[in-house]
Structures are given as C-alpha cells and as structure tokens.
Write a structure and sequence with these properties.
By secondary structure, the chain is an alpha+beta fold. The protein contains three helices and seven strands, in the order βαββαβββαβ. 24% of the residues lie in helices and 24% in strands. The strands form two sheets. Strands 2-3-1-6-5 form a five-stranded antiparallel β-sheet, with helices on one face. The chain has a two-stranded parallel sheet with strand order 4-7. The two termini are 31 Å apart. The relative contact order is 0.22.
Amino acid sequence: METNPMRGITVEKVTANIGIGASGDRLDNAKELLGKLSGAKVVLTRAKKRNPTFKLRVGLEIGVKTTLRGKPALSFLEKALGAKKKTLHASNFDANGNFAFGIHEYIDFPGAKYDPKLGMMGLDVCVTLKRRGKRISERRIKRSKVGKPHRVSKEEGIEFAKSELGIKVE
C-alpha cells in the first residue's frame, strides 16, 4: 500500500533556551554556553511583563535562545536526547505533537566538559513537528487553514518520536 508523502511528519525546528532571570555576567555566560552547545547564533530574550518582586521590568534582558532547523537541528536534538538517555514522559508532548524537555546540567551533554568560569546551568529544548502543507497557514498571500486530519496529533507525535528518533516514552 502506498502512503501519501504529504502525511509524513518532519522536525520543523528545535529551539533551545536558558532563562537566567537577570542581566549581567551569568547572562553572558549563558550566551557563550548555548553558542558552544548549538553552534548557532544566540539571541537575548527580554522580559515582557513588569514584576517588582523579581526586580523585572519590561525590556530587561533575562535569557538567551537559539533556533535550529534542518541537519543542525537534528544533530543538536540527538545530543540533547542523549543527555536525557532517550527517555521522555507522555506529558512532555502537547496536543499538536510537539515536545519539550529540560536538561538539568549542561555537562550531561555528550562531549561537554565543566567550565568553572561558566558555572552550572541547565537548558530547555523544544521540538516543533509539522507535516508538509503547513505553510499554507503561515504564508502572506492566499492564507488558508490546515484541516484537522492533517494536523499532527499527540499520538502521532509520540509515534514519530519512537520510530524516527528512537525515544522511549513512559
């Protein structure tokens, strides 16, 4: 039986971020660390809301993130999953099949060594899945909706992670 190539699921992007909660040396160290681990350009994230309890104001730089696509995304994802021993929980998956997980310490990454200058910090990794044809909901001209049967469901996302990425889901 032939399968429709438009039904195939792929990794759209992998986003990695480190939230520090304040600007200063730790933020610079986080930027350097994420750049080393991902090999991509790192951008600063800013506070969107004011919170006097945590001394946050709108526009204050409080974290770093990077977005990877294509082959660099898959190689980074392979390392990040290695740090988690390729095991995730079903609660890591959302209704759209995307999944996210946290790495408590960057030294869990294969090949990463502890640097006393950087200190100890963890990061979050978010993986966005898609099917071909998703672009019609994002393009500027003749934008249209993607039908419900063509969207990626939680079960399909879990099945993709098991078969293509070799993840064990508990």
